[in-house]
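Workshop exercise sheet. Pairs work together: one partner reads the sequence aloud, the other fills in the structure field after running the prediction. Swap roles for the next sheet.
Pair: D.N. / O.F.
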Amino acid sequence: MSSSDQHPASPWHRGEIAIQDHAGVAARMAEIGPRVIRDRMIEQHREFFSHLPFVVLGVVDPEGDVWATLRAGEPGFLHAPDPFRLRVRAAADPGDPAEAGLTEGAAVGLLGIDLATRRRNRLNGIIRREGSDGFEIRVQQSFGNCPQYIRVRQGAERWLNPGAAAPETGQGLDERARALIVGADTVFVATYADGEAGDRQVDVSHRGGAQGFVRIGEDDVLTVPDYSGNRFFNTLGNIRANPRAGLLVIDFTTGDLLQMTGRAELLLDSPEIAHFPGAERLWRFAPRTFVRHAGTVPPR
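Structure field:
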């Protein structure tokens, strides 16, 4: 057994380690991380992705803004031919601001989530283009997540309907966007961090809670509680390293889909945390640009 086999490299970057240290779990995560975060998909994850009707992506556009987005298709549109590659067969969506970042060699984050069973698995990697019908992700990190805070929903196979209507773009938030956010029990957040060697790690994750768990201030800044989880702190670690973030919110009644890009900040010790029952820390998000796709997710 080689020395590297005995002591696998840490999967954590400095931002993640800093948040783990603040939470008092850095030593534990240093031991756990190399065992649970792999450079390949296990067979269970490969099978899981093949049954999904949609996937959430985190993408960075050429200006460095980060977007969370969806791609969907009949189960099987995600296919892992081997443990190191995941193929995504989905046509390009010119109305999606994330499309500009789905280019050859770009870093991407991916979240597979089954809202009927509350299972979710994540990976991040590098895009390889293979024709006009989709792309391939070469896996860099692959790991599972617990089902906490995921609300059960049926009928996800009827979701995405690309091109249903021309998207609307605006600055900040309008009343319709605010109403969607304060009524949501589910949001997806994309973040990224750049390493000293020029490598980029993109992450996209799920955040859930009781309806209204995301609050909006008078200045349109969103405050999001961070509840007890797996202590990886991928999202918060990325925000510490780089404040750029993107949020995705779905209206499960109207089918609207709202994408936002902006900047985030951490509140690790604020007295404001006490006003969010169950929260261990908070983070804020100031949206700069939003893109709304009306009727993208067909109502049931």
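Discussion prompt: The first helix runs from residue 3 to 6. What would you look at next?
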